[in-house]
Structure formats: C-alpha cells, structure tokens
UniProtKB/TrEMBL annotation:
GO molecular function, one term: ATP binding
InterPro entries in the record: aa-tRNA-synth_I_CS, aa-tRNA-synth_Ia, Leu-tRNA-ligase, Leu_tRNA-synth_edit, Methionyl/Leucyl_tRNA_Synth, Rossmann-like_a/b/a_fold, Val/Leu/Ile-tRNA-synth_edit
Family: Belongs to the class-I aminoacyl-tRNA synthetase family.
Name recorded for this polypeptide: leucine--tRNA ligase
Length: 699
C-alpha cells in the first residue's frame, strides 16, 4: 500500500474493477425489491459543469446506499440530444449538428465516467438516435388517432430576417437574439397535444405525490390554474349584422359585476375578426399588437359596440379590443372592474373610463373610500351593488350566479389556465413529425411500418428559414394510400417531447418495441428523481401528462412517473469584473495580501455570489478539479459543504479542505495496515474504539 494518497492511481484502479466486474449493471429480478434512482439527463453541450457534478453525486449516494441495503438498483444515464444549441453550433462551425452532438456526448461520457459514478452504462440512450425517436413518432400517431394530437393556427414569435420562429427565451427586448430584428407575432399552423384534457387529473393526482416538495406541487397547481367562475352573455346593444348578438364573458369575480365599466375582447375573438373586416383602424391596431408585449404595454381599441349591463337597466358598457385578453383562456372576453383589478384599473386610467368601488374594506367609511392608483383586491362587504349590498364576497358570488341563471344569461363554469402543448418547432435538429400533406389537402399519417421518418443528411446548415422546407428530395413524397403527390411535415417536435418519456425507455433500451411490459411494471415509477426546481413546470408537468396519455393509448399501466422528487440547490461562485467592467473567470484572479488583481496586475471588482454561468465566467471546470484533487474530493465537497436542497458556494478553500480530509482517511488506513500499529491490548483497543466512534459521530 502506498504511504501517500495518489488519487489518480486509486480512482483508476477501482473504476476499472467496477467496470470489469459489471457491478452497476442490473436486470429485472422479481425476487428482489427494486429501486430506480434517476437524475435529470443532461444536454450534451460539450463539457459537464459543477451543477452536473452535484446532481449526479447526490443520485450516486442514493444508488450506492440502496444497493448496500440489498435493493436491485437501476441508475442509468442518457442524453437529451436534440435542440437549438446544436443547430446554432452547426451553423457557426459549418458542420452537421449530429457530428457536433456525438462529439460532445463522447467527451461528456468520459468526464462522467471519471467521476466514478455507479451508472449502468449499458442502458445509455441518446434522444437524437432514430432507434429512440421512432417510438415517439409511433406515440404521436396513436395520440393523433385518439384525438389527443391536433393541428390549429396559433401566434408565434416570428423573426422576419431569419425567417423562422423563435422561442420566448430567444426574444431579447422585443428583438431576435441573432438577427436583431423586431419580432412579430405571426399566426402559423401548429401541432398541439391536448394537455388540457388532463387538467383535472393532473391537479388531483398531485395529492398522491407525498414525496414531492410542496413548493413544486404548488407551482404545478398554480400553473394548471383551476378557477371556478361564471359565463355571462352580455347582449350587444347595436350588433349591426355581426356574427353574434352576444359577447360571452368568463369571470372568476361575478361579485364585482356592478363595478363593471367596460368589456374587452381578444384581438383573435370572432367578433374582433368581424370588426377588422369592416374597420381599417381596427385592422391597423391588431397589426400593432403583433409587435407589442402585453406584459409591458396594455393597449386597447374602442370599437363602435356597446353591451348591456345584465342588472342595470339602460347602462351600456363600451367594448374594446385589447392586447392583454387571451383567446386561449376562458371565452376570450372579459368585463373590466377597474376598482378591484390592477390591470383593469391601469386600462381604465389610460382610456379615461369610470371607476366604481363595489367592495368596502372592514372599518372603512364608504364616503372616504376612493380608488386612485391602486385597486383594492382584499376582503370586505359589497357596496354600490343593488341586491348585493352588505354581502360578503363569496356570498355575493353565489347570489349573482343564481340571478344570472334565472335570467338565462349565465351559468357557473370551471376553467383551467393550462393550455394545450404546442409541439411544432421550425427547426432542423429535432424529431420529424410523422405526417404528410397530400396535394388534395388531406393530412396523411405516415404508416408505422415506414417509421422512423429520419432527418436527411446535411453537410452544412444556413441560419435562415426552415432547413427542411428547402430539401426537396426529402420533402417531396408519394402518398402510401393513393400514390398521389404529397409533402412531408417540415416542423419538428419540441424537445420536451423526448424528455417526457426517456425514463421509460431505460427499462429496455435495446428492445425493438418501445416498452417491455414486465420491465416497465417492475421498474416504474421512478423511486427517486433528482433535478433542479427550474424544471418544476414544463418538464415535470409534461412527463406527468405523457404517462397518462400513454396509459390511455394502451402502452403502459402507470398513473405517475416519479414517486419521489428532490430538487437540489444551485452551485454558485463569486463573480469578478476587471477595470473595463468585463466579466473574468476565477482562474484569472490573483489574491494578494492587500488586494485582488487579475493576472495583468489590474485591480478587480468583486461582485455578487451567483449561479455559475458561462456569461459571467464564474465557472470552474470539473475536469480541472478531478485532475488536481480527484473525483472523491469533488464529490465529497459537493455532498458535505451545504445541505443538498440549498445553494452551494464553490470555494477553493472548501475544496482543499475536502482533499485534506480524504488524505486523513487515507493516512488512517495506512496506520491500520502498517506494522507499527498499536499493540493489541485492552486499554489500547478501548481508547481506539472511543476515538473511532468520536470521529464517526463528528463526521
């Protein structure tokens, strides 16, 4: 045994032994109790970062502990390999995105293996491989057949220079992140999955997730956004041959009906479309709205229409088209009560509309209660509200709903904030959507026997427009049913589609079928899922929807994918700026007794402790740490320096402290194995045991 700890030699020795003995490989074994531990799989961006190290170190501890407890443990790894970064890199580096992606996978795999994680690499998957995405194409066809997938027009962020759709994250201050062009709201025909059909089940099943953080469940509940309200038919006073004599409004606050001073409809509302066809000014307003952010600027267009108040005779409310009213929520129309809704108040002030308080706070005088710049949204008693006066809010809601029902102009209604999942992406590096458009206008699903629909081989990508639209030899096909000319769908799936079911594929990653029933029933649900809280909504909610949809299409017998969820904290680091206010990395910093300088001798401004990010250069390369101190040091620091649910600040002193501790453990081992070991007598044994147990307790 070496007298000096050589982390490179020791770690290489044991990692090699683990691989030779295949101790982390696992198979379905009904005689053993299973435990499935999984960390959210990484995007192959090029190198692992400290967030990866912490995430996978936490999962590794759980996997090893459960294995020692006798469980049959599955701890797999894969790659969320489609996505925009690969496409952008391919454009810059003038190479196929597949080449860039697989190069990164190979590099990151070697980095993860150097960490000594207890991963079963025989189950490795990459979502960009046709053997993976052929199954999700098959899922889509079944969802289409079950009417859980459909196509409709919707607004997207359109870059007029690059001629492509941008995600919200790619729009910076209203401009395209690459072209700098003013982004437009453009209507395109898009594919959707009917997540809204599962709103109630997704909400109710949250109660079954006892081992999920309460914060995540609350976030999902709010996102699903169940609201109980009322639908009211406001009669249009002067319809003038409109497509309807009524405007149907949804409201969660029918108690404020006597404070209503205007009605607003979405620019996409059928009545808006009717008005636009007759009014050039209205048409111009709608076009302006396509470039406006409703969160920043709320704008309205006063139409020639008025609606009759349902309870106040001869009172008319002006009808506006407004950019903040969404067609996707409720009925695409609202009544505005400025006194008790801040958005409505700002709108009323801007357009000089009446403000009528109808809820009086406790211990406030009606004569002195005024609304000026801040809406009152608290509890109180109804005022200025005829038959509702004196009632509490909840009582008033019930009263209004009953009255509306008696007048046959309104009914109680449940709405959900959750919208259907827009799947279409006008990008090359994604899974092709398996449909074609026949020349007679029919949408034809690709037969399952012809799956996968593979991406065409390309040498180089351009940065403008949809690449697949330009590849005629791939796009132009014949209809398998009739032999008529057809064109392939050139949109690809949102990459959340791949990450919504990958945990299922780990159970039998090499099987020709998507799932083997015995394996799925044995391993699922995932016992412990680990990942950042930033995925609380999209990924986790989509995954929950996906298992329910696959259940209802006959693929699996599962209601929830993840039994336990743990959201770890971020890894943070001090930030630094040089004399030019440019961000500089910690490897460029020199600590002197009196000051901190960069490697040019210039004074450095020490900034906040923030999440490690490339943009602020406060990153530390795990490979450098593993090379210098070893994987055990990096993992030990990640596990011991801060509770796992909290943020962890990366410090050089913390790392060296962990390295010293591991060396002490090594030295203790040398002492135990050396010939100079303490003589075996009762007194020495007792003292040694005391010291040993003190050490265990303190550690």
């Amino acid at each position: 045994v070496s007298s000096r700890y050589n982390h490179k030699k020791v770690e290489r020795l044991w990692q090699q032994k683990w691989e030779e003995e295949k101790i982390f490989q696992t198979v379905t074994d009904e005689n053993k109790k299973k435990y499935y531990v999984l960390e959210m799989f990484p995007y192959p961006s090029g190198k692992i970062h400290m967030g990866h190290v912490r995430n996978y170190a936490l999962g590794d501890v759980v996997a090893r502990y459960k294995k020692m407890c006798g469980f049959n443990v599955m701890h797999p790894m894969g790659w969320d390999a489609f996505g925009l970064p690969a496409e952008n890199a391919a454009i810059v580096e003038k190479k196929p995105p597949s080449e860039w992606t697989y190069q990164n996978i190979n590099l990151m795999r070697s980095q993860l293996k150097s960490m000594g994680l207890s991963i079963d690499w025989t189950r490795e998957i990459a979502t960009c491989h046709p053997d993976y995405y052929k199954h999700e194409q098959s899922f889509f066809l079944d969802l289409l057949k079950k009417e859980l997938a459909y196509k409709k027009e919707s607004f997207v962020n359109w870059d007029p220079v690059d001629q492509t759709v941008l995600a919200n994250e790619q729009v910076i201050d209203g401009k395209g992140w690459r072209s700098g062009a003013e982004i437009e709201q453009k209507k395109l025909s898009q594919w959707f999955l009917k997540t809204s059909a599962y709103s109630e089940e997704l909400l109710n099943c949250l109660d079954q997730l006892d081992n999920w953080p309460s914060k995540v469940k609350i976030m999902q509940s709010n996102w699903i956004g169940k609201s109980v309200g009322v639908e009211i038919n406001f009669k249009i006073n002067n319809p003038k041959n409109l497509i309807s004599n009524y405007i149907n409004v949804f409201s969660t606050r029918p108690d404020t009906i006597f404070g209503a001073t205007f009605c607003a409809i979405s620019t996409d509302h059928p009545i808006s479309k009717d008005i636009i066809n007759r009014d050039a000014a209205a048409k111009k307003f709608v076009k302006e709205c396509s470039t406006l952010n409703p969160e920043k600027e709320k704008k309205g267009f006063k139409t020639h229409l008025f609606v009759e108040h349902p309870f106040i005779e001869k009172k008319l409310l002006p009808v506006f088209m407004a950019n903040f009213v969404l067609m996707e929520y409720g009925s695409g129309a609202i009544f505005g009560c400025p006194a008790h809704d801040q958005r409505d108040l700002e709108f009323a002030i801007k357009y000089k509309l009446e403000i009528i308080p109808v809820i009086l706070p406790e211990k406030k005088s009606k004569d002195k209660f005024k609304i000026t710049t801040e809406a009152y949204v608290g509890e109180g008693n109804l005022i200025n509200s005829s038959f509702l006066d004196g009632q509490k809010i909840e009582e008033a809601k019930k009263t209004v709903i009953k009255k509306l029902a008696l007048k046959k102009i309104g009914n109680k209604k449940i709405n959900y904030r959750l919208r259907d999942w827009g799947l279409s992406r006008q990008r090359f590096w994604g899974c092709p959507i398996p449909v074609m458009y026949r020349e007679d206008g029919e949408i034809i699903p690709v037969p399952k026997k012809d799956l996968p629909v593979k991406l065409p081989d390309v040498k180089e990508l351009s940065g403008s427009g949809n690449v697949l639209e330009k590849i005629d030899e791939w796009r132009n096909v014949l209809c398998p049913e009739t032999g008529m000319k057809a064109k392939r769908e050139t949109d690809t799936f949102d990459t959340f589609f791949e990450s919504s079911w990958y945990y299922l594929r780990y159970c039998n990653p090499r099987d020709l079928n998507a799932f083997v029933k015995e394996d799925i029933n044995y391993w699922l649900p995932v016992d412990q899922y680990i990942g950042g809280i930033e995925h609380a909504i999209l990924h986790l909610l989509y995954s929950r929807f996906f298992v329910k949809a696959l259940r209802d299409t006959g693929y699996i017998e599962l209601d929830e994918p993840f039994k336990g969820l743990f959201t770890q904290g971020m890894v943070t680091h001090q930030t630094f700026q040089n004399h030019k206010n440019e961000w500089i990395g910690p490897d460029e910093i020199i600590y002197n007794k009196e000051s901190i300088t960069d490697n040019q001798g210039n004074k450095v401004k020490v900034g906040k402790i923030e999440k490690m990010s490339k943009s602020k250069k406060n990153i530390v390369d795990p490979s450098d740490i593993i090379e210098k101190y070893g994987a055990d040091t990096a993992r030990w620091f990640m596990l011991s320096d801060s509770p796992p649910e909290r943020d962890l600040e990366w410090t050089e002193s913390g790392v060296t402290g962990s390295y010293k501790f591991i060396n002490k453990v090594w030295n203790l081992l040398q002492l135990c194995l050396s010939n100079d070991y303490i003589e075996n007598n009762k007194t020495d044994n007792r003292l040694l045991k005391e010291k040993t147990h003190d050490t265990i307790k303190n550690v």
